[in-house]
Amino acid sequence: MNNGLFKTHEDVEKKINEACGNLKSGNFVLAVNIFQELLINGIDSIEVDTGIKCAKYWLNRIDNINKMTKGLDRGKYLLKEWEGFENFFQESAIEGKLYDIKIVELAGQYIIAFAVEDLVEAYKSLNYPDIDLLIKIGESFILLYDYHKAIETLEYVRTYRKKDPYILSLLADCYYGYGEVRRAKVLFREAFFLGPEVIPIKKIKCSIINDILSEIKKSGHSNVQAWIPVFGIINNYFDIKKELSDEEVEQLIKEIKRIENELEQRIAEYDKMLALWGEFDTTLLEVEEVKMNIKKIAAVRVPILEEVVYKTKPFSLFNSPKWYSDGLALLKKLAQIGIEQEFFIQKLSLLEFARKKTTQKVNLFEKVQIPGYEDAIRKIKRFMEDEENLSKSSQKIVKSRQELIKKENL
After folding, report:
1. For residue 60, what are the domain limits?
2. Residue 61: phi, psi to the nearest 5?
3. Based on the structure, what is the number of domains in the chain?
4. What local confidence, expressed as pLDDT, does residue 340 receive?
5. Residue 71: left (phi > 0), alpha (psi -120 to 50), or beta?
6. Quick check: is 134 in a domain?
7. Which residues of 163-175 are buried (b: 16+ CB within 10 A; e: fewer)?
8. 287 contacts 335 by C-beta, under 8 angstroms
9. CA–CA separation, 8 vs 12, rounded Å?
10. Rounded distance, CA 315 to CA 281, Å?
11. Is residue 49 part of a domain?
């Protein structure tokens, strides 16, 4: 129960943050004292409980760590200690004991920073590129959330192991953490198609992969990692295209109708002047150039109208009818609207075609490829069960024969 030392929620938060700061900087004694002070004053929470366990865990080991000689062996030892530390809390979670993951990571950062320093120095002393050591360094930078250095390290590793799904998945996770989602999706897609079974799922922090895993678990599939590329493609998790929504298609159709209505209004105005158009010189105005550009919408290249350049022949304002100037302006508007309409129709046609292709691909996965995949897995399971049954039968036959031989010898 709170005895009045911590008067407000802000006071408690301030103390927890102070203790966490000490954890991160390796002041484990101070961290333990603050967390225990909170506990004595009735602040019994997951954060306080986790903080005490973390601080005591490293406090019991820090003296031995400081006595070790700086170098590769200490760096590897520290990473092993971190793994043991992380596993301790993961096993606690399995047993139903809650803990604060952020505090666990903060407590480990001091140790991991130590490890990185040792591993980097060890690598610099080598006369050759030790790729396995570089991978450990890259993974350590990820644990420290230093994605910039992790990317630099792992991209160099990638020059030696271009098609290694393990490296590609780590890089994808880094790029996602760095904010480059499109690149992350491309790398994840490639990694999971090359070898989903070797990807270190427990090390991946990306929410996209966690969402896919949740969907696979809900569907009841076993061998979860093998299903990640399938669910990733079907549900567009690895799709870097922007899906064209029904609302966007509807908006395009509305825009085309608006232009059509405007064109009809202009033609109606044209009809009112029909008697006069017989006097008009039709060679005065022509479209000299239609300037256009290409833009990607939902990863589909579509034409975009930029400008219509008209060529107007000179005419005498004194000898021509007064309405010629208005007539030229009206003709330009009619031509402009007509050209815009063609561009919108072409854009809609291209986007609708792309949507149909996407739908066909999804249907192919759902109706053909996934059932085929499931059937193949069933056959493999049956084969393995048959193999196991045959093995057991063989063992029984051998055992029976051995017993028969023993009886005959007696």
Report:
1. 1-125
2. -120, -20
3. 2
4. 79
5. left
6. no
7. ebbbbbbbbbbbb
8. yes
9. 7
10. 10
11. yes
The residue out of 125, 143, 172 marking a domain boundary is 125
pLDDT in tens, 128-179: 889 999 999 999 999 999 999 999 999 999 999 988 999 999 999 999 998 8
106: CB partners within 8 A, 6+ apart: 20, 23, 24, 54
Radius of gyration of the chain (CA): 35
Domain of residue 315, CATH code = 1.10.287.3240
What tokens does 324 get? 């010629």
Q: For residue 400, is it within any domain?
A: no
**Cα distances (angstroms) measured from residue 296 to each of 293, 301, 302, 303, 365:** 10, 5, 6, 9, 26
- Is there a domain that residue 43 lies in? yes
Torsions phi, psi for 3 (to 5 deg): -90, 10
| pLDDT average, residue stretch 292-297 | 73
Q: For residue 2, is it left (φ>0), alpha (ψ between -120 and 50) or beta?
A: beta
Instruction: Give the residue from 90, 110, 125 where a domain finishes.
Output: 125
Beta carbons of 305 and 343 less than 8 angstroms apart: yes
Between the alpha carbon of residue 168 and those of residues 137, 182, 230, 241, the distances in Å are 15, 14, 18, 20
Q: State the CB neighbour count (10 A cutoff) for residue 101.
A: 12
